[in-house]
């Protein structure tokens, strides 16, 4: 898969859109600075490809905006706390655990009493039921694993 940088996509789209519209502004600029007919011919040559430049510019702009939105959601995920202290309801034993970010943990075996912890009714995982911090999807205001 092609990996795009949103800043590069936005700059590329701006350049493509400037080139695409060169048939309009370039002749005026060339006449203003004393341009020759040969340079005006170059502008006419670019005009043939203006649709291609415009489409490229629009596509790169859309990719840049998509990447920016995707990047902002990653920034939100950076604020997620991954460590939670699980408190066993059977024996009171506490242990700090690192929560998984790609799945919910439905079962947890207490190291002290070997009881198998399951989520309480309405909770998605053992961290939401017995942990000091809710699971990463809940912290990110995303749907959990239900």
Spatial separation of the terminal alpha carbons: 30 Å
Structural class: mainly alpha
Task: Figure out the total of helices.
Answer: 6
User: What's the alpha carbon Rg, rounded to whole Å?
Assistant: 28 Å
Mass-distribution shape = rod-shaped
Name the average pLDDT: 77
Residue fraction in strands: 5-15%
The helix/strand order is: HHHHEEEEHH
Low-confidence stretches: none
Strand order of the largest sheet: 1-2
User: What does the main sheet amount to?
Assistant: 2 strands, antiparallel
What does this structure look like?
The structure is a single chain. The longest helix is centred in the middle third of the chain and has 28 residues. 20% of the residues are buried. Strand 1 and strand 2 form a beta hairpin. The chain has two domains: 71 residues; 57 residues, no CATH class. With 146 residues, it is mainly alpha-helical. A two-stranded antiparallel ribbon has the order 1-2. Strands 3-4 form a two-stranded antiparallel sheet. It is built from six helices and four strands. The model has no long low-confidence stretch (mean pLDDT 77).
Keywords:
rod-shaped; mainly alpha; 6 helices; 2 domains; two-stranded antiparallel ribbon; 4 strands; 146 residues
Give a brief description.
With 146 residues, this protein is mainly alpha-helical. The chain has two domains: 6-76; 83-139, no CATH class. It has helices at 6-20, 22-32, 37-47, 50-77, 126-130, 136-139, and strands at 83-87, 94-98, 108-109, 116-117.
